[in-house]
Design the sequence.
């Protein structure tokens, strides 16, 4: 029996997807901030890709200087609120908290960060003075974490910025791809609105820029272009039956879930293929949507699984079961719909992963979700003659400048798919790179 | 089993824990409830001509998430009629004949003193405490600490009281004075039976930063209060010790100030108090804390082999000397237990910025355990005090214990440094990092 009932309305949905890191009230924040040791050369700062001065903002919270805390956070990370909720803090700042070495619960840095930034957002606190307009213009392609972070930073430096995105809403995967129990859509869009109003970049949504001609026009109108284009759709795994109805990509499944909530396609028995964090999310989400049984299959061992341990624990905590050393062979169908998946057991053979003969078996199911990685945007890069590596990642120099000097890039399109916080960190550097490039000319 | 029974100058109680004269002893109801909970004695909220109080009355010092680390009040003595209080004293003694009920008194004229002493004795109190300590409000009227700050006046009034006293008399001292032994000696000269200390310390606990008024706020204004709570214990312990060590005082002491746990009480007793009085801790947590206090003190006495409270009194006093008699050859240095270290580096920054630059960082990737630069370590303890891990930084003895020398002895030998650059001083050969290392944020 499943732990969760299929949600019938949005109220049910919110209950099933209760926030894992709920907002702290002022007292809780005060107590928690009081525990911080204010380490010298603090490991949490070093563990944060954006290098937020964490002990400082925690001390500012504990002394009642909430605006100061928010300013400290946003100075290093323009998506301070979203990152407080969606960052894998367990392996970043909180994972490095010295309390872990004492078997004491680490400081809840993520929730403290959300606490301070939420108050700044709700009060619409103006935190920064921008430099005067410098007369130069930058186009940002993609309104995801990289694009928006770069836009904020560029505005700080005095550039006019236009942000273009193919989708209807900003924030990219923060909205379209993050598990609903990590952050609500309202929270994401609230920070986006706050940033847009604070920094004053112009946004152009539902506005896909993809042809050579469109880019030619941008190149004429703008001094530089920042690509924050992320990744494409779910990659094919090239097995028979992949095109059956109810066999879908994880990115696509999650996007529907995030936007349409209860109308997402949920089976009674769901098999999720993959061992990454997206697979864990898709499995957790299926369970929380009321699937009776959810099975994760991963072709290698648990140790080799790229997902964070805590993400697997989260999935298991809502009833997901996991099978390791199992590779899908064929998605089975009847009348064009999924009825099962045929798998084979795998073993390690002197470093190679090989199937064990005669070990095939079938898992009955009515939905298969492929969380097997996303395609890269090679097509667009070819149109722009921008170099990329074998894995399809845009090749950039230390200033995040691509092989086409006017084009800079940051985020998943460069790093191949990492956390929101990595995109924020890279985008800031890319914006500074643009600034240096345009001022050296 | 240790015997917790206490005897202060002939006033007996089942244990050495008394409630101090304060809001928790404002009524017979409260005192009986306290005795029922396990308290050994109570000093009644000071009696006198009833007062008019203000609202509000208290302010607190919070440290991070800890409430009331320090506390102050501007409440005066009792605002209830004397007759009501006397009736309740009688009633308490009826229910609790073996518990100590002490009447705290504060009046002005000799006639008033004589009358009120007789009244409380008639009501059946076991002892009298003279409130010469209150440092707010009453002192403006020439009472409370105004008396405690004038040893001659203190002596005169105490003598008035002794003329009619039939029960032991305790003189309660104010710490708002430069040498606590002066009023203590005056009490002794007046033939008082005991002293109690400390009363509260004149204080302002904080300022309302929005309205620019100190706390507690009375209609937009404030006044100084009397400070108490855990924060004042060190001041109290030192004054208790000073009185206990002075042969010219020679009176039993009731220790007061910052007592919240059995440990605080044990410290007061080891430094010379025969019993202790508690107020703020009860105002914070209620009478129930007595259970921890008696059980903890009994356990400690059993562990240490003290059969009675008297066995414990003053046992730390022989170990408190003047600075000039401390051994200059004793040498400890810090040692960091690498297994226990959690890498917060608070010891590093404390020593680097606040002490003697005697802790270094390896600079190796992944190794956050600091190391001691032993040549620079003066054995000050700072690192071990800031370290958040128990027993991680210890102070290890380095001298062989053979040599003993003191400042006083050096003086007798004529070996104290006397000129500004005297080579006989300490601080020579102290390694100091380069000036450039101090200027990391300065743009060259």
Sequence:
């Amino acid at each position: 029996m499943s732990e969760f009932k299929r949600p019938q309305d949005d109220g049910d949905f919110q209950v099933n997807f209760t926030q894992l890191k709920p907002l702290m009230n002022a007292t809780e924040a005060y107590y928690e901030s009081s525990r911080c040791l204010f380490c010298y050369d603090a490991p949490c700062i070093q563990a944060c890709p954006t290098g937020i001065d964490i002990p400082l903002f925690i001390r500012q919270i504990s002394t009642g200087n909430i605006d100061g805390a928010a300013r400290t956070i946003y100075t290093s990370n323009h998506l301070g609120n979203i990152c407080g909720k969606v960052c894998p803090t367990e392996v970043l700042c909180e994972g490095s908290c010295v309390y872990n070495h004492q078997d004491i619960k680490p400081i809840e840095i993520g929730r403290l960060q959300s606490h301070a930034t939420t108050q700044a957002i709700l009060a619409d606190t103006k935190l920064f003075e921008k430099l005067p307009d410098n007369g130069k213009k930058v186009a940002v392609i993609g309104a995801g974490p990289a694009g928006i972070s770069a836009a904020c930073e560029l505005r700080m430096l005095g550039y006019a910025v236009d942000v273009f995105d193919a989708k209807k809403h900003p924030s990219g995967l923060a909205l379209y791809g993050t598990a609903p129990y990590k952050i609500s859509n309202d929270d994401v869009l609230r920070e986006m609105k706050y940033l847009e109003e604070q920094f004053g970049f112009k946004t152009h949504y539902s506005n896909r820029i993809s042809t050579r001609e469109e880019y030619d026009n941008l190149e004429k109108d703008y001094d530089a272009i920042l690509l924050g284009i992320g990744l494409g759709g779910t990659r094919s795994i090239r097995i028979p039956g992949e095109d059956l109805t109810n066999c879908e990509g994880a990115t696509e499944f999650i996007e529907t879930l995030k936007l349409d909530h209860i109308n997402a396609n949920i089976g009674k028995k769901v098999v999720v293929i993959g061992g990454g964090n997206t697979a864990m999310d898709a499995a957790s989400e299926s369970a929380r949507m009321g699937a009776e049984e959810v099975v994760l299959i991963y072709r290698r061992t648990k140790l080799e699984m790229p997902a964070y341990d805590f993400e697997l624990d989260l999935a298991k905590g809502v009833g997901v079961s996991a099978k390791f050393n199992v590779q899908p062979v064929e998605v089975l169908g009847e009348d064009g719909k999924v009825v099962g998946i045929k798998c084979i057991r795998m073993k390690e053979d002197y470093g190679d992963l090989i199937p064990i003969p005669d070990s095939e078996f079938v898992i009955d199911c009515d939905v298969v979700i492929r969380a097997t990685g996303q395609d890269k945007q090679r097509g667009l890069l070819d149109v722009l003659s921008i170099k990329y590596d074998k894995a399809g990642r845009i090749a950039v120099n230390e200033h995040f400048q691509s092989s086409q000097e006017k084009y800079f890039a940051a985020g998943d399109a460069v790093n191949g798919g990492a956390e929101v916080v990595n995109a924020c960190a890279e985008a800031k550097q890319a914006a500074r790179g643009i600034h240096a490039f345009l001022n050296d000319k | 089993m240790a015997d917790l029974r206490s005897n202060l100058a002939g006033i007996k109680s089942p244990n050495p824990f008394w409630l101090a004269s304060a809001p928790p002893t404002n009524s017979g109801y409260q005192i009986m409830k306290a005795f029922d909970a396990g308290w050994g004695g109570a000093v009644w909220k000071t009696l006198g001509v009833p007062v008019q109080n203000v609202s509000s009355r208290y302010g607190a010092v919070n440290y991070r998430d800890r409430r009331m680390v320090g506390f102050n009040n501007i409440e005066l003595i009792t605002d209830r009629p004397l007759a009501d209080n006397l009736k309740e004293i009688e009633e308490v003694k009826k229910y609790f004949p073996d518990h100590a009920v002490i009447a705290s008194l504060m009046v002005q004229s000799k006639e008033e003193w004589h009358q009120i002493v007789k009244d409380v004795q008639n009501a059946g109190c076991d002892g009298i405490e003279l409130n010469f300590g209150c440092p707010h409000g009453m002192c403006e009227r020439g009472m409370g600490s105004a008396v405690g700050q004038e040893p001659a006046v203190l002596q005169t009034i105490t003598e008035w009281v002794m003329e009619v006293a039939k029960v032991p008399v305790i003189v309660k001292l104010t710490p708002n004075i430069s040498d606590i032994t002066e009023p203590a000696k005056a009490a002794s000269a007046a033939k008082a039976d005991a002293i109690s200390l400390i009363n509260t310390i004149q204080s302002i606990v904080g300022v309302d930063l929005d309205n620019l008024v100190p706390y507690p706020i009375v209609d937009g204004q404030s006044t100084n209060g009397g400070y108490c709570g855990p924060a004042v214990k060190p001041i109290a312990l030192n004054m208790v010790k000073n009185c206990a060590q002075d042969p010219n005082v020679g009176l039993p002491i009731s220790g007061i100030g910052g007592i919240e746990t059995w440990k605080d009480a044990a410290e007061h007793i080891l430094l010379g108090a025969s019993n202790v009085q508690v107020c703020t801790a009860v105002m914070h947590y209620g009478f129930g804390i007595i259970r921890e206090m008696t059980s903890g003190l009994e356990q400690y006495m059993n562990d240490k082999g003290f059969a009675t409270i008297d066995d414990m009194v003053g046992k730390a006093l022989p170990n408190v000397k003047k600075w000039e008699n401390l051994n200059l050859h004793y040498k400890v240095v810090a040692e960091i237990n690498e297994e226990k270290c959690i890498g917060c580096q608070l010891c590093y920054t404390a020593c680097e910025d606040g002490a003697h630059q005697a802790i270094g960082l390896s600079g190796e990737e992944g190794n956050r355990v600091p190391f001691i630069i032993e040549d620079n370590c003066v054995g000050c303890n700072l690192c071990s005090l800031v370290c958040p891990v128990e027993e991680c930084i210890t102070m290890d003895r380095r001298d062989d214990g053979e040599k003993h020398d003191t400042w006083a002895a050096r003086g007798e030998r004529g070996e104290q440094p006397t000129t500004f650059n005297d080579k006989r001083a300490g601080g020579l050969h102290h390694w100091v990092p380069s000036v450039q290392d101090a200027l990391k944020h300065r743009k060259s």
Summary: The two ends of chain A are 66 Å apart (CA to CA). The interface with chain B takes residues 30-31, 34-35, 37-41, 43, 62, 98-99, 101-102 of chain A (CB under 8 Å). Chain A is about 40% helix and 15% strand. The longest helix of chain A spans residues 420-440.
